[in-house]
Amino acid sequence: MGEVAAKMKIMPSDVETDLGKLKEQLRAAVPEGSEIYGEIVEEPVAFGLKALIVTVIVGDQEGGTEAVEEAFAKVEGAENIQILELGRL
Amino acid sequence: MAADKPHLNLAVIGHIDHGKSTLVGRLMFEAGAVPAHIIEKFRAEAKEKGKESFAFAWVMDSLKEERERGITIDIAHKRFDTDKYYFTVVDCPGHRDFVKNMITGASQADAAILVVAAPDGVMAQTKEHIFLSRTLGINQLIVAVNKMDAVEYSEARYKEVIEQVSAILKMIGFKPSEIPFIPTSAFEGDNITNSSENTPWYKGPSIMQALDQLTVPTKPDTLPLRIPVEDAYTISGIGTVPVGRVETGVMKKGDKIIFMPTGTAGEVKSIEMHHEEIAQAVPGDNIGWNVRGVGKGDVRRGDVCGHTSNPPSVADEFVGQIVVLQHPSAITAGYTPVFHSHTSQVACQFISLDKKLDPKTGQVKEENPTFIKAGDAAIVTFKPTRPMVIEPVKEIPQLGRFAVRDMGMTIAAGMCMSVKQK
Fold first, then answer.
1. How far apart are CA B226 and CA B246, in angstroms?
2. Reported ipTM
């Protein structure tokens, strides 16, 4: 079976979004069977905007990163989720 | 970690259980990329117990343990050096549902090692991964005919496997004569760095030597400008700021740009990356750019920014080559799943199934087939249900790949061959 690490970029809804709160909510939203690895890192983008970089570990199985992406998409303050990198552990 | 060596992204692909992870571990081990403290710990333990021969398996276990305990910081990829290059390795997931991520993801592999176990030969996933590697734009391939120890280092078996793999490679335009086929045992360490005594009949390069023979792809900065929009923001005191990653071309301050498919045009007022202003953005840069003459509602995720003089292509219809990865029944004309390409998601209708290809010979097996199913490769004409930007892979490969999704599954992966514009 094996596990896969997916590095995701989450863009906030706007410049004023509280990133601390967003991080907490993302941690709370991780669906069963997946987990966040290490810290959620703030990455400066442009004009005051910051993205959050999250590494999530999911099983190498049906659905892939779908459940995590859907759960994160529902979090208030998360505008969109993009998978940056992906690899088996 | 020599920073002055050119960097390459390396994907390791192949059927599950053919030894991908073992090969990655072996490469790391022989390239000296295993952390010094692990090697030290090993030396002490080996001395104590006298089991040097288990060196490699032990190192693999230690690395796994460190990941589980959360010691490794960047776990999504691994790094090692050869004489010439510095590699970032991605061990590709086995399940098909990750294909979407590999197509729309940011890190593009420059080369791939295809691992095929000698006892099994070509399996379903081997075929799929070869197709995918081409769809993903990987043009440099090394084939490791692995687990040679399990077939007594038989040259005859090695040749049989080469023949099987070559047939599929030819079909999608790889030239087998230009690809090294290396007999390996990742577990025993045969032909990884040095030529193995177990395969005296093999005169070609080892894996490390083959890696050094790869070439660094040129940055796509001479292609037309294309930046898929990830999102657009309104920032007080600044204005409309789309964000995204430059795929191809160069954008400078003052450039006249246009967003397609909407046709909204404006002028680049300023560009920022990591919160610092830059004069120009090149491929790979993650930027936000401020556009004069464009409102926030005029730009959205999935739009593509290009120069007004060479705008992104909006497809009325397009022709693509796809490989069907999974589908519960048969796909016929009229099927309308969602296509994921760059940052866009648009439902597209299969308006005609034009050709079915034979995976064994690469020839057209059937003209205008009535249906296609899992495992088939085909040429199909698609019609987007709303305007969408897509480019032929021959012209702008970065904007020509797509994943087809339906019922929560990745149904197919494909590349755009031609576009009939609006």
1. 6
2. 0.90
